[in-house]
From TrEMBL:
Lineage of the species this protein comes from: Bacteria, Pseudomonadati, Pseudomonadota, Gammaproteobacteria, Alteromonadales
Domain LysR substrate-binding: 4-164
Superkingdom classification of source: Bacteria
Identification of the protein by name: LysR substrate-binding domain-containing protein
InterPro entries the UniProt entry points to: HTH-type_LysR_regulators, LysR_subst-bd
Pfam families, per database record: LysR_substrate
Species of origin: Shewanella glacialipiscicola
Amino acid sequence: MGVEQTAAIQKGEIELATGIIEVDDGYEGIRVFNDPMVVVLPKENSLSTRGVLLFSDLSNEPQVMFETEYTLYQLVLRACQHAGFTPKNITRVSQADFGIALVAAGTGVMVLPRSIARRYSVSGVVNIPLASDELRWELSLFWRKDQVLSFAAQAMINLVKKHLTQQ
């Protein structure tokens, strides 16, 4: 969940939000999208011929990452640290398409959800899957547990449950 959504839902300015969140004591939610992660690499990178990559394979690679307030930045950073390293030579971006263009130009590698990497794919890059148990992009619709939801919010939750939920 982004910083702005977190503040808005905590203040009660909004009832529902979408984002990447660990549903805990403070929130309830419904997972609506579950996407594996890939590493976007320049075709000439030595890792580009592998069938699958681990986060530890990226330890010596310069990285293109989202700005620090993005949830994906935090997820990737934690996964790197869990693999035993902290990324170095980070180029920060706020748009996936610009990040992929930087990868194509040889600036570094970028970890993205597969659907986003495919949407903005350009020539000169390849998408190599990350080992599936290391990190996934799990988008949820969520709300505060202690909040009484309006009829409209309850209707939205029911609509999402009916048409969009993924296991």
